[in-house]
Design goal:
There is one protein chain. With 416 residues, the protein is of the alpha+beta class. The chain is built from 13 helices and ten strands. It has three domains: 86 residues, Orthogonal Bundle (Butyryl-Coa Dehydrogenase, subunit A, domain 1), CATH 1.10.540; 108 residues, Beta Barrel (Butyryl-CoA Dehydrogenase, subunit A, domain 2); 119 residues, Up-down Bundle (Butyryl-CoA Dehydrogenase, subunit A, domain 3). Helix 8 runs antiparallel to helix 9, helix 9 runs antiparallel to helix 10 and helix 10 runs antiparallel to helix 11. The longest helix is centred in the last third of the chain and has 29 residues. The chain is globular.
Length: 416
């Protein structure tokens, strides 16, 4: 066993794969990893960044490094989750311009593989892997964020098609996406969780309006989407009618594991980056500062061990489970701690600087962006409930309205 990782020694084939991948990455012209950044270059939907991402993703696919553990018939590599882990290790040394595909490959793709029809997998998986089509997850609504099952967007069936009407919000990357997985209310006479259906939606379809949302970081990574009688063929339904909640759980479990990655956590500033800042400013000798740095380093180390532990289950072939909620909780906590510590050490440069200064620090951007990671992929409060119930085995909070039909529940909610 590898003592530092708790994982079996690599096989000869896995070692050969690692060496092949290492050589390919070294020759790909990539910049070294800069894990102190927070905002992706596509946060403001820069066309050049999207073009670069497509070109690189295509090269990954042609080299055999995209969708490593996905089935071969749909364009995947047919390898094991261990190969995915090796890829993450080696690719972590570089800044890969693949952020635009993180939702498609990390959340939508696994959902289609688990619940999609054969025709859907053949049509959408390979173009996703080649970087030809960008995807979004279209779940949250103005009145249905933490309580996703309260969503009101309607899907009305008419023979072999559906009409979609409603509003979604906080959709990451919607302005650069071609497709998305949307969750809608298909039967209001059923309880909240039982009357939902998932669809593949073409974001260029008539009736779809997408508007960017400005964040306090100054960027517009998110958008709101309006559906006005958007027509969707029934063969674009994912899973069974009114079984959308089960499909959504697959998406969310993959989201929490994907978002809970170690490099994601370091977007608020890695411990080493902040330690280096403290040394450069002469503050590393201050005992209070040293205590804060030790706390940060310990938190990052513990998060790394947790990531290995949860990742080992995925590498064993199991779907991401409630343990992913623990990982996501730890990630949100670390990002906030890192951003706050870094901003305090940098001082005035963290809150005011000349934007034309090439060495201007971006710590205010990190500080403003950190709260997002306690919300995206499930709020801290919701995830704590999930951990309490599904990991610790504690009783569920009392809810006398869980089995109430949605149309009755919403009347109670609106008049409360």
């Amino acid at each position: 066993m590898r003592e530092e990782e708790g994982l079996p020694e690599e096989s000869a084939e896995e070692s050969d794969f690692r060496e092949e991948l290492r050589k390919w990455l070294a020759g790909a012209g990539l910049a070294p990893a800069d894990i102190g950044g927070l905002v992706s270059p596509w946060a403001d939907h820069a066309e050049a960044a999207v073009v670069d991402a497509r070109v690189f993703q295509r090269s990954l696919y042609e080299a055999g490094f995209a969708g490593l553990s996905w089935p071969v018939p749909y364009g995947g590599g047919g390898r094991t989750p261990r190969h995915e882990y090796i890829f993450d290790q080696e690719a972590g040394r570089y800044e890969l311009p693949t952020g635009v595909f993180s939702i498609g490959l990390g959340m939508c793709g696994p959902t289609l593989l688990a619940h999609g029809t054969e025709e859907q997998k053949i049509r959408y998986i390979a173009p996703m892997l080649r970087g030809e089509e960008i995807w979004s997850q279209i779940f949250s609504e103005p009145a249905a964020g933490s309580d996703l099952a309260a969503l009101r967007t309607k899907a009305v069936r008419d023979g072999d098609s559906w009409s979609l009407t409603g509003q979604k919000v906080w959709t990451s990357g919607a302005l650069i996406s071609q497709y998305g997985l949307v969750l809608a209310r298909s039967d209001a006479s059923r309880p909240r969780h039982a009357g939902l259906t998932m669809f593949i939606v073409d974001l260029a379809a008539p009736g779809v309006t997408i508007r960017p949302l400005k964040q306090m970081t100054g960027h517009s990574k998110f958008a709101e989407i309006f559906f006005d009688d958007v027509k969707i063929a029934d063969d674009h339904r994912v899973g069974a009618e009114n079984d959308g909640w089960r499909c959504a759980i697959t998406t969310l479990m993959n989201e929490r594991f994907s978002v809970g990655g170690l490099k994601y956590a370091q977007r608020g500033g890695s411990a080493q980056l902040i330690i280096d800042k403290a040394r450069a400013s002469g503050l590393a000798g201050d005992p209070v500062v040293r205590q804060r740095l030790a706390h940060l380093w310990s938190a990052e180390t513990l998060f790394g061990y947790l990531h290995h532990r949860v990742g080992s289950a995925v590498m064993a072939g199991r779907d991401p489970g409630p343990e992913g909620s623990i990982l996501k909780l730890a990630m949100g906590s670390f990002i906030g701690l890192a951003a706050e510590t870094g901003a305090d050490l940098v001082g005035a440069a963290a809150v005011a600087w000349d934007p034309d200064e090439p060495l201007a620090d971006g710590w205010s951007e990190r500080l403003c962006g950190a709260p997002c990671f306690t919300i995206a992929g499930g709020t801290t409060e919701v995830l704590k409930n999930l951990v309490a119930e599904r990991v610790l085995g504690l009783p569920r909070d009392t809810a006398d309205d869980r089995d109430v039909p949605f149309d009755e529940w919403i009347r109670r909610f609106d008049t409360a």
